[in-house]
């Protein structure tokens, strides 16, 4: 293989577009202070081509076809890196040889990584400088199971840089990668079952967010889930600026104050700490200093809350700061990004609203105006690796992906109702919607964080359980029953009863103590089964732990007058429902 081939890129839309912006845009496109990088396209292409050269020189020659494209039967190359400049260079280098990138968590164990390598039939890891030791441990563990793994350090900051006008980088018209081939493999978060290996084709980087030249995006999420990975690929293709930063609320607010940031997206676990930091540290500042932070936030062109449903108080806060710019976006690993998003004219009083389909996305509900969300889009995944049965089951006969999420329509907007399985608690004939109770819980001003879970009882039925952390001020409040520990559950029920019928109220409560955390995936989704196992384990006698508070309808009584729909019209079945 000659040196010239290293500068000949595949004839496909990704690299045609990349070469176009290379010749037209001269600003810094990646600011990565931790790696000491301020890269323009000249530096970007220099590093990309050097990493590509390393791949060609290090991988077995029989992995490539006559066009120097990696063979389709073994396209997967793993990346072990933060969501930073190293990851970006590794990703484009893999794509440039026809490969498919597989992001690994930087917290992964050698055993887990080895299993994933076996599963994907891959033998190559590109590792960032801070993760070479972990990669070496993965290699050693894999070798003990008869898998020979090649670990290649990700090369960046190569010099001298390429002159964009030299013409040394070009598209090879004969070097084609079929669009149906894998481009990226991601593992699902595992909140609704064992993680699946989700394969997207080479078209995976078609961003649903309209990115403009001059946009500045703050990248703070890990790349092994889709909302963290996509911007790292799509931003360099648009001539926009990507800044790698921390998710620390103080750092995010300081960067917003500096000005110029136009896109910020994150889960409620990003937006909520930022809200609390504002209340605790910024709101008390002199007006002139405070306004500098507010003006910076108001400079956002796009502000997305993603990953899980935000509670209404969070949306009210940010809409007060930003106006109607803050949007709720609904997506999934299988979607290839976002599927729906609220709009400027979405009714802000609609709870659990996920908005309307984005351009190019088609949504049907299985029962017409309600039911399971069925979705089709150009960026939809192609298959689950090694699981034809799961792939077939995931699609309807007309090619729509079965999301497993339930919704109904109000006007043009879709309202999330939970999942087809797992987001309802069955209590002796009652069907309690977890998301609805969780929204009401998180909207209480004295709740710092919390979730709703289904906990079994001695009758093998389900009970509505709340796992919460109170604000510190509440712990000093003594409410009824001479300040006994059970008063917290009564206190919680009475506040929730203002918006929920009685049959939906928690009958089990566990208060999180200092140092205890709600189990979550890296994308901040609650791992409900793990939370139940950790905080609500049943003894051999089917008893819950002593630090769990219980509501017994035979001995405990609510203080409000019974209402018509407290028991969904089944007023005679109160005790059995609990």
UniProtKB/TrEMBL annotation:
Top-level taxon: Eukaryota
GO molecular function, one term: medium-chain fatty acid-CoA ligase activity
Protein name, per record: AMP-dependent synthetase/ligase domain-containing protein
InterPro entries: AMP-bd_C_sf, AMP-binding_CS, AMP-dep_synth/lig_dom, ANL_N_sf
Gene3D superfamilies hit by this protein: 3.30.300.30, N-terminal domain of ligase-like (3.40.50.12780)
Gene Ontology process terms (BP): fatty acid metabolic process
Organism from which the protein derives: Oidiodendron maius (strain Zn)
UniProt similarity note: Belongs to the ATP-dependent AMP-binding enzyme family.
Pfam families recorded: AMP-binding (PF00501)
Residue span(s) of domain AMP-dependent synthetase/ligase: 77-385
Cited SUPFAM superfamilies: Acetyl-CoA synthetase-like
PANTHER family documented for this protein: ACYL-COA SYNTHETASE, ACYL-COA SYNTHETASE FAMILY MEMBER 3
